[in-house]
Every structure is written in C-alpha cells, then in structure tokens.
Amino acid sequence: MPYSHDQVLAALKHVKYPGSGNDIVSLGMVDEININNNQVELILKPQKANDPFLSSIKKACVNAIHTYVSPDINMEGKISVRKNDPVKKVETKKVATEAPAIFSGVKNIVAVASGKGGVGKSTISTNLAISLASKGYKVGLIDADVYGPSIPKMFDVEDERPKVVKINDKDMIIPVTKYGVKMLSIGFFVNPDDALIWRGPMATSALKQLMLQGDWGELDYLLIDLPPGTSDIHLTLVQEVPVTGAIIVSTPQDVALADAIKGIGMFTDEKINVPILGLVENMAWFTPEELPENKYYIFGKDGCKNLADKLNIPFLGHIPIVQSIREGGDNGRPSAIDAESVTGAAFMDLGQKVLEQVAFRNKNKEATKIVEITNTNGCSAN
Ligand code: ADP
Asked: Which residue's alpha carbon is nearest to atom 20 within ligand 1?
C-alpha cells in the first residue's frame, strides 16, 4: 500500500474547523479513512446538522492530502459525509466585544461578497471604492479573495510591495494608495503558484494581518473584497471585526442567484447577523456601441432586482456589460476614475446608494457585534 493511514491522518491535522482553532482530526470529524492503491476515501462526520463549512472543509482536506501526502492521489468524489450524526456541537454566540483598538479610526466596514466567482465582485469593489473616494470619503480596500486576488491588477499596482514600518513598537503594513484609495491585497504576499497552500489557515491569518496590522489611519469606509461563496475567510472576518454590512454582487442568471441566496443566508444567519446593505446586479445587459438603443439581456432580465424585492433587501442598481469596464479592470484604469463617462456615472450612482444604505443602517440598527465561536463540549484548542 503506497500511502499509510497515519500519513493521511497527519495531513488532515492541517485542516482546521473554521473559527474554532481545532483541527478536524482532534474534533473527531474524520470518521473513516480507506486507502486503496492510488485512491483515498474519507468519511467525515459533520459538527452539526447542515454544517455550512462542510464544502470548504472537504476542499481543505483535498488540498491537505495533495500537499502533505501526494499530489497524485485521486480524491475525485471520494469524500462523503455521514449524515444525521453530528459529533459535537459548535455554537456561535454574540458577545458585546469592542472592536480592536486599531479599528477605532475605521467608521464602517463593508464586506463585498458574491455566491459565485466571476460575477464581477472585484470589479464592483474596485469601482465602488474609487467612487466613494472621489466623493470625498476616506476609503480603504482589502482584497481578501485568495482564490484570485485581482485588485492589484485592477489598480495597476501588481509590482508594489507594501512597506512594513514600526509604529509604537508594532510592525505595521503601509497600504498602497492609488485613485484616493488605500489598498492592501493578499496578492501582495502570495505567489500565485502557492495559492493552493495559502487557502485555509494561512489565508485567514493573512486576512487578520491585513486588517489588524494595516496602517489604515482614519477611514470612513473599509471595503473587504471577499472570496466567492462562503468560506473560513468570511467567518474570520465576522469574528475579528464588527462588519457594518454586506453588499452582494450577482449576475441576473439563475445559477448565480441561487448561490447569492446562500451568501445572503450566511450573513443574515442569526448567529452572524451582518445586515445586507443591498444587492448589485452586474452584467445586467449588453449594449453594442453601434446599437446604443438596444439592450440584450444575456444573463436574464432583472433577476437580482426581483430577488431583492422578494427577500426585502435593498437593490443597489444595475451595472451593464461594457467592454470599457473589462478593459479598465485589465489596464489598471477602472471606469470610476472618469465620473463623467457613462460607466463612471453608473458607479457614482452605486456609491451614492451605498452611502444612503449605510446611513440608513447605522440610524436604524444597532452596531454589529463581533461573532464569537465557542465549543460547548469543552474541547480544548491545540
Ligand atoms: P469576481 O471578482 O466576481 O471573480 P471580476 O470582478 O474579477 O469577478 O470579473 C470577472 C471578469 O469580468 C473580469 O475580466 C472583469 O473585467 C469582467 N467584468 C466584470 N464586470 C463587468 C462588466 N460590468 N462589464 C464588462 N466586464 C465585466
């Protein structure tokens, strides 16, 4: 037998249950390991019924086995979950924790999320940040999308390496500033070839560092461009800082909307309780330059608008598919830097709607509390 049970178990010890500090082996989540030549089959026991982190844990298991045992192991469809038998209860509860002192200068933290990748979340984050900055607000942007940190490219600062300086005896990372936006990206610290290993615990600690060791100073808005879907990065965010609200980006296509609903469900879960500031419909239609009156609803019409109405959450607007939006992202000159252009104006409107929704939220809802995850079974962190 080429691989041993112990090798696989040791690899799985690198997989942490999001937010708990414990690995899945110590938590008793690894129920069975079957090794057959080049195949490893795992049976996991969930922590609780409908455990929202199972899919990210499964991916982390595959990454860990490929990284620490062998990349040649076939794991395709080889991880199953024992149903109806959660092992131990992990409970989330709200505590009235103050935001870390370093965040005292940051007035609003806004998460930008999407259910699916490729729907334009980073494009929206970038242009929204620039639009808010051009309206005179102090804006920071953290690119936490470990699956494709694209914001440095959108700002044309890919080759920048942020400086680290000692402030009050603490190492602080100086954000890169462009178009009035202070920005830090996981992409500045990750070699794209290492991205696979970076996902998981290393990525969550990198996000913490960008938030808590970034020298952000006074900010009106700190936007966080999250990875698509729901991941341990999301959980780290809500555990580390009080998130004012979340913006969800989707295309109007049914498959994207189905995933957007899951994302909304995660933020509005009573244990997380981050208000949804609104839904942005990106790639709403396409208008060819030569036929400016025509709109082609490539991904369907008004899917996000209808969903927002149905879920009773704010709708923040339509952004059409425009070649210059794609080009602006690729060449580091995002559309929002020209507020007079049609696309720039669309992002200015989006910025305005976000300002209104944040003001409304702050007036009508109590401040978000940091989520604390506790293990009620007395399991100690290792
Ligand atoms: P995500 O962050 O959701 O993965 P990106 O923002 O990276 O998505 O966008 C994916 C691709 O689609 C990029 O090439 C981007 O330039 C392009 N894109 C996003 N929104 C638009 C739009 N409204 N019009 C044209 N291209 C867009």
From this structure: 120
8-state DSSP, 200: T
User: By alpha-carbon position, which residue is closest to atom 4 of ligand 1?
Assistant: 118
d(CA 263, CA 269): 10
Distance CA 182, CA 167 (A): 18
What is the whole-number distance in angstroms between the Cα of residue 47 and the centre of ligand 1? 36
Q: Among all chains, which residue has been given the structure tokens 């969903």?
A: 307
Question: pLDDT tens digit string along 97-122?
Answer: 344 444 668 999 999 999 999 999 99
Atom of ligand 1 nearest to the CA of 148: 4
Indicate which residue's Cα is closest to atom 14 of ligand 1: 326
> By the 8 A CB rule, do 339 and 134 touch?
yes
pLDDT at 133 over 60: yes
| Distance between Cα 61 and ligand 1 center (Å) | 30
The band of 91, judged by pLDDT with boundaries at 50, 70 and 90, is very low
Q: Give yes or no for residue 332 CB within 6 A of ligand 1.
A: no
* Ligand 1 neighbour 123 (Cβ under 6 A): yes
**Ligand 1 atom nearest residue 321's Cα:** 24
* Alpha-helix runs per DSSP H in the chain: 5-12, 54-68, 121-134, 151-154, 195-198, 201-212, 232-240, 254-268, 303-311, 323-330, 342-364
Residue written as tokens 């506790």? 374
Q: How far apart are CA 168 and CA 307, in angstroms?
A: 48
Q: Model's pTM, two decimal places?
A: 0.74
pLDDT for position 103: 65
Does ligand 1 have an atom closer than 6 angstroms to the CB of 325? yes
Q: How confident is the model at residue 168 (pLDDT cuts 50, 70, 90)?
A: confident
Say how many Å lie between the CA of residue 284 and the centre of ligand 1.
12
Contact, 349 vs 219, CB < 8 A? Answer: no
